[in-house]
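ARCHIVE CARD
CATEGORY: sequence design from structure
SOURCE FIELD: tokenized fold
FIELD CONTENT:
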């Protein structure tokens, strides 16, 4: 009996070692407690200034697949398989960070008199919902520098009645300067900033909703 248990333990240890050995090359693997935390902070939008919109906006937390609804930094390898950077993470779940980026961009534009998160339960005339379709570093070669793609489908609906008024898709890519996590994070900030800027420019041009 003891011999059988020992053999099972040896098999499990061997399998674990094989799994870890398979995560080489790009520095992939499970996160560790001492993982470096990278800030997702896109630049302020270029769509600042202009006529003030006569309505208040609440920004909802974007929907995302489980693979993106995480603190881990996603990548797509050349064979179209999903993985994550090892020893690196965002400071919060990615959809929450994208919500923060959207709120900050609308505020920085100066075009909306009141911007809030839907969970704040403040007055709003419009609500912005979104789906995060892509937010990952894409590799065309295992050792090459990736390109980061951010794709967000946005919808504006009336806060009273939840009637969808308009929808818009913003998809932006930015190449990383080299195959390193800091360079990839810089590309994330560039691509997300460009996508958010387009959403802000689209949304602030909408007319005020009809009175309820």
């Amino acid at each position: 009996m003891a011999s059988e248990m020992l053999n099972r333990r040896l098999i499990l240890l061997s399998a674990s070692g094989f799994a870890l050995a398979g995560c080489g090359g790009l520095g992939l693997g499970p996160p560790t407690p001492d993982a470096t935390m990278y800030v997702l902070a896109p630049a302020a939008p270029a769509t600042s200034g202009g006529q003030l919109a006569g309505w208040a906006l609440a920004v909802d937390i974007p929907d995302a697949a489980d693979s993106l609804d995480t603190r881990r930094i996603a990548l797509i390898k050349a064979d179209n398989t999903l993985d994550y950077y090892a020893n690196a993470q965002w400071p919060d779940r990615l959809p929450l960070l994208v919500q923060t980026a959207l709120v900050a961009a609308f505020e920085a534009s100066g075009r909306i008199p009141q911007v809030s998160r839907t969970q704040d339960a403040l007055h709003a005339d419009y609500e912005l919902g979104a789906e995060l379709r892509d937010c990952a570093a894409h590799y065309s070669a295992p050792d090459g520098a990736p390109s980061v793609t951010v794709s967000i489908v946005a919808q504006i609906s009336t806060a009273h009645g939840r009637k969808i008024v308009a929808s818009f898709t913003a998809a932006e890519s930015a190449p990383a300067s080299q195959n390193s996590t800091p360079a990839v994070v810089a590309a994330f900030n560039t691509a997300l900033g460009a996508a958010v800027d387009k959403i802000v420019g689209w949304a602030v041009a909408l007319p005020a909703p009809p009175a309820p």
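CARD ANNOTATION: The domain at 31-203 is CATH 3.40.50.10610 (Rossmann fold). The chain has two domains: 1-27, 31-203.
SHELF: design records, drawer C
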